[in-house]
Every structure is written in C-alpha cells, then in structure tokens.
C-alpha cells in the first residue's frame, strides 16, 4: 500500500469521528495531571487530522458541554468526577459517545474497597485489607494485617494520600492523613516485591494486555512526585520476567478488568511477591497520558505510537447504557 493511500485512509478515519471533545482538567485532586494528559491527547488528535477541542469540566458546565455538539468525547480526566462514573453517567444522559468504561465499571474500579471485594469473590488475588471508619481502632487493624502496611483513601489515584506504615506509632497519623481526603480509609497488607503495571485495551473477550512494565522507583517510593515530575524512576518495558510469570500477570490483569466490566482501555497495578505470585492493587479506567505515563509506554513497546494509541482509544467511544424502549 502506498504512503499516499495510507494517508488518505488515515484522513478518512479522522474525519469519521466528527467533532471531538477532549474532556480534561476537572475538579479532582488529580487536576494538574489531567491537564497534562488532556493537552497531550488533544495535540495528538489534532496532529492526526481529528477535529478535536479541549473542554475543561472543572471550569465549564454540563449545559456548555451539551451546547458544543460533540459527536464523541475522549475522557482524559482522572479521579473524582471524571473517573468514578459521574461524568460517564452525564454523558449517557446527554447521548454523547465517550471513551473508556461505563458508569458502573468506572465507579467500581474507582472504589478500591468494592473492587477488592469483587476480585476476592471471583478468586483473584489481592492483598488482605481492612476498612477504617470514624472511631475505628488502628491497633486492631495492625494486629490483623501486621506491619508494614499501606494506608490510603479508597477513592483517590496517583498515589495521593498513600502512606506506607512501618512502625506502630505512625499508624494513627497515617490514617488521619488519608482521612483528610474522605471519611473511610483503606488499610492494606504490604506486599514486598516488584511493582508492575499492565495496560489493557478492548472489551469483553477482545480485551488484551500490552507488555508488562516494571516500575523501579528510588527507595521504592513511586509517589505523586516521582510519577509525574522527576526522571529518577526507571521503567523496564517489557519487564524482565520469566515468560510464564509474564503470562500470569497479564492474565490476572485482564481478568480483573473483565470482572469489573471495564472496556475501552485501562491499566492494572500489580505487586509481584518474592515467590512470583501477583497481587492486584487497583484498576485505573482513565490512566494518565502524560510524558511520564505508562499506557503510552506499553503501547510503544507493542509498536503503537502515542497518536495511534489515542486514535485506537477514540475508535471505541460509545454510550454503554441502552435506552429503554416502550413495548
């Protein structure tokens, strides 16, 4: 096929998307990252010939979104009001096709406690945990889970509010730190080992994993700063793992994704213990698309550049809730 023919086909695909909105910014604690993601996606789509327009859901209203008459939208929002099913529900009501998972899957994946309950029910491995509400006794949690353990707010991403507790005397302050973000706090058994992440594309039986990435952060601190604003974290892609381990990690990630009903794209974070057993930490249904982000990195290892990835995700945009029809 000639280059001219390929370019013509690419322009035809870009035109078929119509007027595209890139939803970014938002009102969550991850707004800064979302601005970077959305800006990158918008630039890539425009460069590919798509009629794409940025729309900041943190600064503009749903009425303004409806007035834009977008034919479909690319969700580049992270965290609350963008990754938790709320914007997805609004888009269903407005009848605007959108990328990624639907309202229910988004809400389940965003709620780390509910996700863990479902995974455990389905026999998928995830660290033991406890939920701490108002008045909970941190000492009882320590007795149950041991030390070290991880304390985090169940509805935040990008490692916001996450604390590793190694000493009993630090547990209460860690719980208070996480509780600054929401009323309940998730305490999770710490799994020592290798930190892995698996990007996933597609839906249902067609969902498939991209190459596994190993994250090697300084002193094991893959926090907000080291995720997005430094170059000291190393990423090994594909991760240097035995073939059987790679398959097991990918299969677990895809199973976790399918079990929650995710679609379009996502990313599963996994810990691999010293015995080579993988444990699910969480599923991100609208992962980062910044210069430091992991889904573009995995896609590149699979032979798909950043603009191609954006186009592939955009192709899957659709409304997920079928309208009830009177008989």
UniProtKB/TrEMBL annotation:
PROSITE patterns: ATP_GRASP, DALA_DALA_LIGASE_1, DALA_DALA_LIGASE_2. It catalyses: 2 D-alanine + ATP = D-alanyl-D-alanine + ADP + phosphate + H(+). It is an enzyme of class 6 (ligase). Its EC number is 6.3.2.4. Its cofactor is Mg(2+); Mn(2+). InterPro entries: ATP-grasp, ATP_grasp_subdomain_1, D-Ala_lig_Van_CS, D_ala_D_ala, Dala_Dala_lig_C, Dala_Dala_lig_N, PreATP-grasp_dom_sf. Gene3D superfamilies: 3.40.50.20, ATP-grasp fold, A domain, ATP-grasp fold, B domain. Pfam families: Dala_Dala_lig_C (PF07478), Dala_Dala_lig_N (PF01820). Pathway: Cell wall biogenesis; peptidoglycan biosynthesis. It is found in: Cytoplasm. One of its GO terms (molecular function) is ligase activity. Its main location: cytoplasm. Keywords: ATP-binding, Cell shape, Cell wall biogenesis/degradation, Cytoplasm, Ligase, Nucleotide-binding, Peptidoglycan synthesis. Residues 116-315 form the ATP-grasp domain. Cell wall formation. Belongs to the D-alanine--D-alanine ligase family. This is D-alanine--D-alanine ligase. It comes from Pigmentiphaga soli.
């Amino acid at each position: 096929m000639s280059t001219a023919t390929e370019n013509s086909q690419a322009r035809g695909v870009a035109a078929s998307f119509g007027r595209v909105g890139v939803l970014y910014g938002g009102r969550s604690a991850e707004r800064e990252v979302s601005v970077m993601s959305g800006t990158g996606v918008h630039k890539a789509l425009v460069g590919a010939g798509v009629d794409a327009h940025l729309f900041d859901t943190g600064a503009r209203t749903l009425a303004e979104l409806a007035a834009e008459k977008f034919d479909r939208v690319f969700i580049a929002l992270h965290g609350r009001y963008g990754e938790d099913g709320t914007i997805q529900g609004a888009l269903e009501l407005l009848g605007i096709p959108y990328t990624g998972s639907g309202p229910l899957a988004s809400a389940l994946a965003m709620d780390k406690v509910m996700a863990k309950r479902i995974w455990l029910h389905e026999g998928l491995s995830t660290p033991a945990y406890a939920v701490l509400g108002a008045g909970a006794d941190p000492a009882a949690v320590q007795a149950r889970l041991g030390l070290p353990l991880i304390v985090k707010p169940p509805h935040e991403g990008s490692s916001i509010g996450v604390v590793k507790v190694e000493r009993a005397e630090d547990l209460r302050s860690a719980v208070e730190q996480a509780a600054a973000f929401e009323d309940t706090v998730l305490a999770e058994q710490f799994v020592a080992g290798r930190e892995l992440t698996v990007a996933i594309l597609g839906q249902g039986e067609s969902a498939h994993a991209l190459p596994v990435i190993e994250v090697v952060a300084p002193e094991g601190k893959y926090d907000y700063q080291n995720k997005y604003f430094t170059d000291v974290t190393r990423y090994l892609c594909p991760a240097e793992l035995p073939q059987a381990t790679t398959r097991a990690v990918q299969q677990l990630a895809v199973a976790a994704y399918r079990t929650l009903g995710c679609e379009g794209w996502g990313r599963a974070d996994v810990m691999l213990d010293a015995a080579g057993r993988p444990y699910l930490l969480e599923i991100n249904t609208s992962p980062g698309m910044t210069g430091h982000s992991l889904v573009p990195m995995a896609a590149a290892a699979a032979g798909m550049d950043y603009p191609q990835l954006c186009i592939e995700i955009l192709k899957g945009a659709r409304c997920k809730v079928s309208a009830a029809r009177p008989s």
